[in-house]
């Protein structure tokens, strides 16, 4: 029986195994259902209900309901790459102040993913809210103004009465950064003006509907690296990126399932072949990339102040230049 036949095969209830193609080690995965007192189909229904109650779906799926039935690539934000941990980085919402940012990954058949961020003076980025719905620009523009009206300190009815120039001025004065998927600049739409057909872009369509976006960076690798940098946990247990789990369920869900494409069999050792993320369920993550690329690289943790003895040792081992006076 070869690797393909062995992979993820379940021999005992709740226990599955496969062989690692890189080192041929056998791997066992133990699911909670292996324990009769935790299996809801046996004696564990009470435990199951209690454990699942109040746990965000993204966290539950990540920690409990891992799907071993299909092959999957490495998690982009897995522990091999950074300190990302849903239990640490997904937090309950609270009042926070700083610069307001908005980013948008446009989708008409797929969801349009809009994220609201707050960047504090301490260099911490909080993602505080999201818009996640497939829609044309005129619809998503109106719905975003309605959804985020509480940030503007206005009611949806007050915003509805504004013309597009007034809405644009409102957004411009509130958000320090407004970025969008750079592919939206393509003039792939047509409208009739004064009896003539005119080509226009999604970017222009959003402008006509009250949002003056700038084009974001579409460097995928750089965006992933920047997110990883912000997820790193510094001294004192502080990260530079947190997501409000009660406000951003789709971003939370995508972050814990965002994977690299699995390399074809036999190419695992080809180090020159770049890893590419799977282009599926990544709309909010893409929006986060555009947003975080407007921020600087993660600030370094402040250097620990040296003690007097440590400073003396540093001075003693410091190299010095010899001067020839002859």
Q: How would you sum up this structure, described in words?
A:
The chain is α/β, with parallel strands linked by helices and 326 residues long. The protein has two domains: 3-53, no CATH class; 86-292, 2-Layer Sandwich (Nucleotidyltransferase, domain 5). Helix content is 30%, strand content 18%. The protein is built from twelve helices and twelve strands. It has helices at residues 3-6, 45-52, 57-63, 86-89, 137-147, 156-160, 164-174, 202-208, 220-231, 249-257, 283-292, 308-317; strands at residues 9-12, 15-19, 26-30, 90-91, 99-105, 112-119, 125-133, 177-180, 189-193, 196-200, 214-215, 241-244. The strands form three sheets. The chain has a seven-stranded mixed sheet. Helix 3 runs parallel beside helix 10 (249-257) and helix 10 (249-257) crosses helix 11.
What's the structural blueprint in terms of helices and strands?
Elements: H1 3-6, E1 9-12, E2 15-19, E3 26-30, H2 45-52, H3 57-63, H4 86-89, E4 90-91, E5 99-105, E6 112-119, E7 125-133, H5 137-147, H6 156-160, H7 164-174, E8 177-180, E9 189-193, E10 196-200, H8 202-208, E11 214-215, H9 220-231, E12 241-244, H10 249-257, H11 283-292, H12 308-317
Parallel strand pairs: 4-12, 5-8, 7-12, 8-11
Antiparallel strand pairs: 1-2, 2-3, 5-6, 6-7, 9-10
* Proper CATH architecture of the largest domain: 2-Layer Sandwich
Give the helices and strands as they follow along the chain. HEEEHHHEEEEHHHEEEHEHEHHH
Overall mean confidence score, pLDDT: 82
SS class = alpha/beta
What's the gyration radius in Å? 25 Å
| Sequence of strands across the biggest β-sheet | 4-12-7-6-5-8-11
Biggest pleated-sheet summary:
7 strands, mixed
N- to C-terminal distance: 81 Å
Q: What is the strand content?
A: 15-25%
Helix content: 25-40%
What name does CATH use for the topology of the largest domain? Nucleotidyltransferase, domain 5
Count of helical segments?
12
